[in-house]
Amino acid sequence: MSGTAQIALAKRTPAIRSRGRPLTGSAQSPAQRMRRYRQRQRAAGLRAVTRMEAPVRALSGGALRHRVIEARSLAMHCLAAQKIMLEPALLDRVRRTLDAWRARYGKDTPRALDEWAAILRRPWPQIAAFITDPGERATRLRQSTPFAGVLSVRERERVYAAFRP
Questions:
Q1: In 27, 32, 89, 147, which residue has its Cα 20 to 30 A from 141's Cα atom?
Q2: Cβ atoms of residues 142 and 72 within 8 Å
């Protein structure tokens, strides 16, 4: 191909840009781009952060240990719920355990045991949802649970081993 043929070919093919956005013909200043960006953010319902937030504090050793214990208790109750779902007669054992505890206290029954009695009068799906709930009330009541006898020693050891540091 001769030199004039190459020039003629180059004139007929459009220039291909290898990088960046296509040319629009109306360049904007950085300030204009920022204003448009902020306008899009406001339209999307977002707002600019205008105050400094304090960083989240790390948990102390005692608080961290307590969280691990709560997580372990939740794991054991999830396992107990699975086991009771497969063998519903285990729920009767839980109710008998609670009745024995309440009889031991007589009229001075702790409030937690009364709460457990009310919970165990519910249908099984509601009981299962409660004992596997990570909320504050369920976490508090799991500290005095009548479900302790549902899991075998080996099952409890496996859960404890999973939460060992």
A1: 89
A2: no
Structure-token match 């989240």, residue found: 56
Looking at per-residue pLDDT, the higher value among 1 and 33 belongs to 33
Q: Which residues contact 146 (CB under 8 A, 6 or more apart)?
A: 94, 95, 97, 98, 101, 116, 120
Q: Which domain holds residue 116?
A: 61-162
Pick the closest to residue 139 from 97, 58, 76, 86 (CA basis).
76
Q: How far is CA 147 from CA 9, 47, 62, 80, 94, in A?
A: 84, 48, 26, 7, 6
Task: Look up residue 101 and give its two tokens.
Answer: 């505890």
Nearest-CA neighbor of 78 among 27, 160, 134, 25?
Answer: 134
- Asked if residue 31 is part of any domain, the answer here is no
Span 89-110, pLDDT tens digits? 999 999 999 999 999 998 899 9
Query: Domain for residue 138, yes or no?
Result: yes
| Interval 47-67: pLDDT, tens | 666 676 776 777 777 888 888
Asked, for residue 75, whether it belongs to a domain, the answer is yes
Q: Is residue 12 part of a domain?
A: no
Output the average pLDDT for the chain. 85
- Could you tell me if 146 and 98 are in contact, meaning their C-beta atoms sit under 8 angstroms apart? yes
